# Entry
Amino acid sequence: MRAMVLDRPGTPLRLRDVPTPAPGPGQVRLRVHACAVCRTDLHVVDGELPDPKLPIVPGHQVVGTVVDGDAIAHGTRVGVPWLGWTCGVCAYCRSGRENLCDAARFTGYQLDGGYAEEMVADARFCFPLPAGWPDLAVAPLLCAGLIGHRALRLAGDAERLGLYGFGASAHIVCQVARWQGRRPFAVTRPGDDAAQALARSLGAVWAGGDDPPEPLDAAIIFAPAGELVPRALRAVAKGGTVVCAGIHMSDVPSFPYAILWGERVLRSVANLTRRDGEEFLALAPRVPVRTTVTTFPLAEANEALARLRRGAIVGAAVLDVAGSGDVRSPT
# Structure
């Protein structure tokens, strides 16, 4: 089978013929249809996340069909997320916080992922996918959607919600927030007219490269830029929450205690749980979430990553591994 393989961080992926993987106990083998491209993939490829399994096949927003293994019926379409395995016995796992398991393994990082024609996955960490969504449209829900959902929940019941960095996650969260009766404010890079236009089309009450025009009740930072933390803290009202939603961020600069004071909360989101996945994949069809995607064939994964690195993707990038070309979202 063909796969895009990372041999060493900081180098381009190579398209290689590799052996078809065989499922072990509790695993299934999937024929991959689509895999959305995530900024976390960039952090792995660029060496910003330490100690990946090498060589590694990246990709953790995988849509595929079960073709081998006994744990899930053959022909079932499933999604594979970032969290690929946990120990199940540590204090974190036993208390419903498996996202913090110290022994966890992650798809496309320690476990080969979906930048390939086939892959194996732990059946316990495969999600049934809502009907009516083509593969390319549903793929971004599996990380951009799930992490966005967790971040939105940790932002509390904020009505005035700032979204810093309007990419794959924010364009999904904006729709959910609006459906919930919140007022999203999209903060983009100055001059990013395409992202701002998308934000407005999806329900943002304001979009721009400056600070929001009124105080926020909460802010979610999706961009991996530490300098946004003090900026977001200054934008939230007393009692507000700033949620850092990325797995990696540049260093946060020092800031005066005055912008944290007033019972403001600064917190991070780490990974996701299977419960997050179940909740969000049940919620998304009710909104319904509409994903905006730019597609690439498997062999052009490096180009997809390069465009994501430059900020040249509006919405989400998705590898069309099966060549379906169908990007419709539910209406």
User: Anything to note?
Assistant: The CA atoms of residues 32 and 117 lie 5 Å apart.
